[in-house]
Amino acid sequence: MPNREARPGVLTVGPVMPLATARTVLTPVTTDAYAWLYKLAVSDEVGWRWRWRGHHPSPEAFAQRLWQDILVQYVVVDRRTSAPIGLLQAYGHDPGARHCHITVMFDPTVHRVGWHLEAVELFISHLFDRWGMQKIYAEAHALNEQQFASGMGSAFVEEGRYPEHVEYQGQLVDFAIFAAYADDWHRHREQGFTGRQQSLRDLL
After folding, report:
1. Phi, psi at residue 36, to the nearest 5°?
2. Nearest to 200 by CA among 147, 142, 127, 158
3. Residue 106 within any structural domain of the chain
4. Torsions phi, psi for 179 (to 5 deg)
5. Which of 27, 92, 112, 174 would you label with 140, given CA atoms 20 to 30 Å apart?
6. What is the pLDDT of residues 23-44, one digit of tens each?
7. What is the pLDDT of residue 51?
8. Number of folded domains in the chain?
């Protein structure tokens, strides 16, 4: 159940829930995962979509920056193969306002299959239920915008936009900020998300 008794300025942690779905499991980030995460973060297919927008830090700087401003983060593991397939991060936590930002990155071999997004839904639910968040932010640039708008409105709403704010392959594109609210998330989770796989894929 969501932690609705949390007080402003106090981080109240709710009951522990299993961090696993039918096909994925969320595991703590350890140093053993650093090499795989670094390779994924600097890859041409994934790097520009992730939190650092294609910047290539050194492996040493990557290991340090990986934990900067982090509330909680997990490696997503394929339960069938026991192989890592992605990273989920919650950062920029404001304990008074009870909100945070999320970012994810996945191996491109699973990025468009859809089922890995059950891990993202689990992670968002975990932040609302376990960590008592009232709002969770996510960000997207205009290259994802058209597909994003088709379904995300059921769970996320646009809260801000920076025109021509992000450079990608020589062009400036818009950068938008979206938010999910705890009550809306719980309601849509119970009813089933409208277009959830498509919209989550485009946003994250």
Report:
1. -65, -45
2. 147
3. yes
4. -140, 145
5. 27
6. 999 999 999 999 999 998 888 7
7. 66
8. 1
